Amino acid sequence: MKELSSSQIRQMFLDFFQSKGHTIEPSASLIPQDDPSLLWINSGVATMKKYFSGQVVPENPRMTSSQKSIRTNDIENVGHTARHHTLFEMLGNFSVGDYFKKEAITWAYELLTSPDWFGWDPDKLYMTVYPQDQDAKKYWAEVGVAPDHIIEAEDNFWDIGEGPSGPDSEIFYDRGQAMNNVAEDDPENFPGGENERYLEVWNIVFSQFNHEPDGSHTPLPRKNIDTGMGLERVVSIFQNAPTNFETDLFMPIIQTAAELSDGKKYGVNEADDVSFKIIADHARCVTFAIGDGALPGNEGRGYVIRRLIRRALVNGHKLGIDGAFLYQLAPVVGEIMKSYYPDVLDQMDFIQKVIRSEEDRFNETLTDGMDLLNEVIETVKQEKGLKIKGADAFKLYDTYGFPLELTREYASDAGIEIDEDGFKEEMQKQKERARSARGKQKAMGVQHDLLINVTTPGEYVGYDQLRVNGKVTTIVEDEALVDQTHAKMVDVLFDRTPFYAEMGGQVADTGHVLDGDGNVVADVVDVQHAPNGQNVHTLDVKVPFSVGDEFELVVDAHRHSKIEKNHTATHLLDQALRDVFGEHTHQAGSLVEPGYLRFDFSHFGSVTQDDLDKVERIVNEKIFEEIPVTTTITDQETGREMGAIAMFSDKYGDQVRVVSIGDYNTEFCGGTHVKNTNELGLFKIMSESGVGAGTRRIEAATASEAFDYLEERNMMLKNIAADLKVNQLKDLPNKVTALQTDLKDTTQKVATLEGKLATQQAGDVFNNLTDVNGVSLITGTVKVSKMDQLRALADNWRDQNLSDVLVLGADVEGKANLIVAVNVTTIKKGIKAGDLIKAIAPKINGGGGGRPNLAQAGGKNPAGLPDAMNAASEWLAER
């Protein structure tokens, strides 16, 4: 067996298929673009769906990639099995309507067995095929695979419902009985069985059918190849590792974690090994995910990141690692992967900052979680129960990141169990909520040949002209190609067009189609891109027309100009945000409309008004400097040498447009722009908000819309000045300050009077002393305007040491409030304020909690306050 590193293996795979005419596709972002059916990119083919569905025609139908992927449907298995991972790389080769079974099988066998490539022993390879796929069986035999190494398996058919499907062939590597986890005579000891001897390394899917809605399978017009080889598995074979974790992809991370622990070593204790594996896996995943723009949050991708960080920290705690440590492993991940993913190290400062911030936050939560766990266990004991409720165990898991096995361990020490069925029920509810949130999107569309085969050129000339003559080349009506229009709404391709097709956040142009006499033949209501790049115009037809007819195409120039201004403003805003917040800030989405612009950007932290003022000032300075805006058409490499910024979500061709705003900002961009920044006139931020964890949104306007926004605010100020009887706007701040001072003085006077009233009431209430089961108790209701006054009365009670227990209630603006205080001596007897408040809060239809010495509650039923007082006496009587 050759001695190869993971980076060498990855590159060898890509080089092999490049030698077979494949284009090496770069590893796409883990965050799916324009695919709401996916939470993460979860396979190599996930990035190829647009090609297989016919949405886009690839420049080369042969492609290969090493695609980073994330799967989180079985996080609980990570660390406990040999090959479960959240982040993994999928090596693959793909054919879109080009080569098929014979070539795919021949090349697979060559890569695996040729001394020039992997050089594996052919005798150690086994292939499974679909029983009805005799072609695959024949081709495997033709390349030299022994008949007893070709196994028919009924489940070798790849089908995910409606859409492309077909038989597949899996390749297994025999690692020998010494690597196995089952006996040699075990019925699972065969290629494809549940064992560690025969390791599946490659799956080749022959996509040749379409799964129809009625369940039938019809032949596809173009047959495709889709393969997947897990890099981690292949590396474990080359490096003779028992599991994927004892390879150069994971061991440096595990070794660093061991150095941070309290003397733990990998390979000594099985439980410790599980924790090391979890930490190594999760460190890789969160490092890459954050590098691609995903940030910790409470839903979607953000929730996955947060959950992984918490799970890693809990396992670090088990290894004796105190405090934040996961951020220290991120650079190790970057070093391991730098040969193919240099961007990870480039973003390391930002990645570490995000991880460290989340760790610090959870380390506080970890203590709270332990407190809750101890409280739950104590409650079960007091109630003489046998099990922790499934809902409580799930809350520990879901809110505090406690894996079920950790809760089980602590519960076992206390001699109690967990309602694991109840836990699973809560887990299932969460999964159903997650699936519902992602929507019922189809995973793979059916191939659609309607526009795929339309290759008639369609030239876009809208960068320079907004009014040109164009000939109709294609008409699509009711999902069919027609020669003449019959319906009101149709899609049309012209040989030349000035209409911009929606792209890069910029909305499409609208306008009109005119005949030779200047009459409106159709209104252009939308423009999108066809699979082969032409602009598809959605027309509201006024007069029927045919293929071959020539018309004048006229863009709504006023609307187009507004869009241009706002698009150039997004470039200025993008740069200004980096100037103010740092280079880690990058675009996370944008929308350029004629009336306003919307710009989403990544920023982990708060945005102050002072920050926004700085950003706005910078953009307006660049407008007032009257900077020329130029466009250069060049290749990608030259564009990067010019300093052009590329958006990670965009895919660029060989020729790119580089838009430069003087020497201030340079970006790759296919949109339309003004000739000089002075055309923007004015820039005004209208709003700023958070739209997700680590993602902020700015909405802004330029030119007349910015002026209108300011004029509206000016009228508001004038109306306020009139109401306050201020003659000049410049005097308005002084008037507001004077009113605030008066209000503050009045509020203080009211608070003083209320305090005196409360004190007078306290004199009566504090006399209401009773003895319950040897405990002195004071109860009563008082009239106060806020909870703070109840707490002040509790402080007075404590200072005067008036009783063992105090229970006060108040009706504050129609809502019931309760406060309970217990002195130190009584706490030692086992009577705690938090327990008592929970017992009486239901009387006011509320709930609450607190510390042993002080607790409070709120509810919706003030009429229940007397009952709460009586309940307090009853509760003490039962102690």
UniProtKB/TrEMBL annotation:
Requisite cofactors: Zn(2+)
Enzyme class label: ligase
Domain Alanyl-transfer RNA synthetases family profile: 4-712
Catalytic activity: tRNA(Ala) + L-alanine + ATP = L-alanyl-tRNA(Ala) + AMP + diphosphate
One Pfam family named in its UniProt record: tRNA_SAD
GO molecular function terms listed in the Swiss-Prot or TrEMBL record: alanine-tRNA ligase activity; aminoacyl-tRNA deacylase activity; ATP binding; catalytic activity, acting on a protein; transferase activity; tRNA binding; zinc ion binding
EC number annotated for this UniProt entry: 6.1.1.7
Location of this chain's protein in the cell: Cytoplasm
Biological process (GO), any one: alanyl-tRNA aminoacylation
Keyword check for Cell wall biogenesis/degradation: no
A cellular component term, taken from the record's GO annotations: cytosol
The keyword ATP-binding appears for this protein: yes
Residues that hold Zn(2+) according to the record: H567, H571, C669, H673
Record note on cofactor: Binds 1 zinc ion per subunit.
Keywords for this protein: Aminoacyl-tRNA synthetase, ATP-binding, Cytoplasm, Ligase, Metal-binding, Nucleotide-binding, Protein biosynthesis, RNA-binding, tRNA-binding, Zinc
Highest taxon, organism lineage: Bacteria
Cited function: Catalyzes the attachment of alanine to tRNA(Ala) in a two-step reaction: alanine is first activated by ATP to form Ala-AMP and then transferred to the acceptor end of tRNA(Ala). Also edits incorrectly charged Ser-tRNA(Ala) and Gly-tRNA(Ala) via its editing domain.
HAMAP family referenced in this protein's UniProt entry, alphabetically: Ala_tRNA_synth_B
Domain notes: Consists of three domains; the N-terminal catalytic domain, the editing domain and the C-terminal C-Ala domain. The editing domain removes incorrectly charged amino acids, while the C-Ala domain, along with tRNA(Ala), serves as a bridge to cooperatively bring together the editing and aminoacylation centers thus stimulating deacylation of misacylated tRNAs.
Protein family: Belongs to the class-II aminoacyl-tRNA synthetase family.
PANTHER family tied to this protein: ALANINE--TRNA LIGASE, CYTOPLASMIC, ALANYL-TRNA SYNTHETASE
Identification of the protein by name: Alanine--tRNA ligase
Organism: Levilactobacillus bambusae
Lineage per the UniProt record: Bacteria, Bacillati, Bacillota, Bacilli, Lactobacillales
